[in-house]
Write a structure and sequence with these properties.
The protein has 310 residues and is α+β, with helices and mostly antiparallel strands. Helix 9 packs across helix 10. The strands form two sheets. The chain has a five-stranded mixed beta sheet with strand order 5-6-1-7-8. The chain has twelve helices and eight strands. The chain starts with a strand and ends with a helix.
Length: 310
């Protein structure tokens, strides 16, 4: 197995109680069987609380947080996890242990990363002066001849580019397709907003936010200037955002064409650019988009199917 990691993966660290937007809310969190069995055997007050919090159905156990109480009840008032405090990290379920890390598989290639709904992950992506996102490769059995195979390894011989990953997949790609090209077309932004309005909101506020963005889009007479200013200030960051969004969905090449994935990444980056131009705070616009799109697989499939229709 060849494992690929974005370089900031290795320095990622949860911000815990210092995080403004905890990951421990809104989601339905599956609990693996071993962890659920362990929770069911606990005779402590925490065990009682866990069993009260867990939901069981034909698919097994999970934590389900209703919209009126979206925050995990196992979070302490200061934002720390009661399970970790009392039992240690080993007592967490697999999902809680790994989140926001993700792992995608294409034959013998493992694509690893951290999801952008996490503010620490967003900071890792943005705290970089490189134009392109870079990756590291791990495999004890792979031997790359740096003299003859300059496609795979970048000039520093330690990192891969996204273009290199496409070559690893046997899909040579025109490097121009990996360049983010911003748009200043107001009508195109309206099309993107209309498309996103068809997706399933993770929370009700998202629907209101989309409507507000569309209203602001129409009302702002200086939108073009705002977009130009935002692009100028964040050109390198927008490039990395586009590439990373594309990278996360590379496993979908098994079911969708490359142009469809490119459109998905392009319109996502356009949306993030628009929201930043209107409201500022690029990190939060990335996080909010990811929370609504990347963390609802139905939304990803819907968008890819929608783009497949042309």
């Amino acid at each position: 197995m060849i494992s690929i990691y974005p370089t900031f993966y290795h320095t990622f660290q949860c911000k815990a109680h210092n995080c403004q937007y905890t990951c421990c809310q809104k989601w339905d969190v599956p609990i693996d069987d071993d962890t659920a069995n362990f929770y069911n055997t606990l005779t402590t007050p925490l065990g009682e609380k866990l069993r009260h919090t867990m939901t069981a159905d034909e698919n097994g156990y999970s934590f389900v947080f209703p919209e009126d109480k979206p925050r995990c009840p196992l979070l302490t008032p200061n934002g720390l996890c009661q399970i970790i405090l009392e039992l240690g990290e080993d007592a967490l379920s697999d999902v809680c242990t790994n989140h926001p890390r993700f792992y995608k598989y294409i034959e013998d290639l493992e694509l690893c990363g951290v999801g952008l709904s996490c503010e620490a992950a967003v900071e890792g992506l943005l705290n970089n002066d490189n134009k392109d996102i870079t990756f590291t490769i791990e495999d004890d059995n792979i031997a790359i001849d740096n003299e003859s195979d300059t496609i795979l390894l970048d000039s520093d011989r330690n990192t891969l580019s996204l273009e290199s990953i496409f070559h690893l997949l046997g899909l040579p790609i025109n490097p121009a397709l990996l360049r983010y090209m911003p748009t200043f077309d107001t009508f195109y932004y309206k099309i993107i907003l209309n498309t996103y309005a068809l997706t399933d909101p993770v929370d009700a506020a998202w629907t209101d936010e989309l409507q507000l963005v569309e209203t602001e889009l129409t009302a702002k007479n200086d939108l073009s200037q705002r977009l130009v200013k935002t692009v100028t200030a964040n050109e390198l960051a927008l490039q990395r955002i586009y590439q990373y969004i594309l990278y996360r969905q590379l496993d979908m090449l098994a079911d969708y064409s490359l142009p469809v994935l490119l459109q998905y990444a392009k319109e996502a980056t356009h949306f993030i650019l628009l929201c930043t131009a209107l409201r500022g705070n690029l990190p939060e616009q990335i996080r909010r988009w990811s929370e609504q799109m990347e963390y609802n697989e139905d939304n990803i499939v819907f968008l890819l199917n929608y783009y497949s229709q042309g």
